[in-house]
Amino acid sequence: MTDFVHAPERVEPPYRDAERPAVQAWLEYQRGTLLTKCAGLTPEQLGERSVPPSPLSLRGLVRHMTEVEQGWFRHVLDGQDVPDLYSSPGDWDGDFHGVGRDADEPDTVAREFARLAEECQVSREIADGFGSLDDLSRGRTSRSREQVSLRWVYLHMIEEYARHNGHADLLRERIDGATGD
């Protein structure tokens, strides 16, 4: 068993809430879901690939979502010039690569999960600095070079986590048969 994967108690988002607290609650729920899917697994299990040659693994999803948090909140919303953590121009999927069974050292995996927690906290702090969901980003998207609203980033992050949590469901069931939301 691993002790570095902290799966927070997920709180179901309220059925009646104002828009900003609602999108914040849904994003927190999705963040917690990914960690719940990883809890209780060994580093080797976290690095198990879905279906070779696909590089998809739970650990890869954690690394990917760390970069997604950093990209949308630090780079786009806050306008920070930050390098990718795992990807590079020569390997855009670097967050998924190098996560094989032989690379799964517990200390490395623990640092990767800690980095996700850190990035989520930074993301919360950046978002808290925006007065309204309508406020536009200080930075621009890398593809369209557009500014986006805080609302757009929240909705995109919910979509991004939800899509990858579906992958995490299948990966976890393949690893040890665990199912659930």
Can you describe what's shown?
The chain is mainly α and 181 residues long. The chain has a single domain (29-176), classed as Four Helix Bundle (Hemerythrin (Met), subunit A), CATH 1.20.120.450. 52% of the residues lie in helices and 0% in strands. The protein has five helices and no strands. The longest helix is centred in the last third of the chain and has 27 residues, at 150-176. The relative contact order is 0.18.
Class from helix and strand fractions: mainly alpha
Low-confidence stretches: none
The CATH architecture assignment turns out to be Up-down Bundle
Task: Write the element-wise H/E pattern from the N-terminal end onward.
Answer: HHHHH
E-strand count: 0
Outline: globular
Please compute the radius of gyration using only Cα atoms.
16 Å
Q: What is the average of the pLDDT values?
A: 90
Give a short account of the largest sheet.
Answer: none
Structure annotation, total helices: 5
Oligomer: single chain
Distance between the termini: 20 Å
Helix content: 40-55%
The total tally of domains equals: 1
Tell me the β content: under 5%
Please name the CATH topology.
Four Helix Bundle (Hemerythrin (Met), subunit A)
Full CATH superfamily name: dinb family like domain
Please give the structural blueprint.
Layout: H1 19-38, H2 43-46, H3 58-77, H4 106-128, H5 150-176
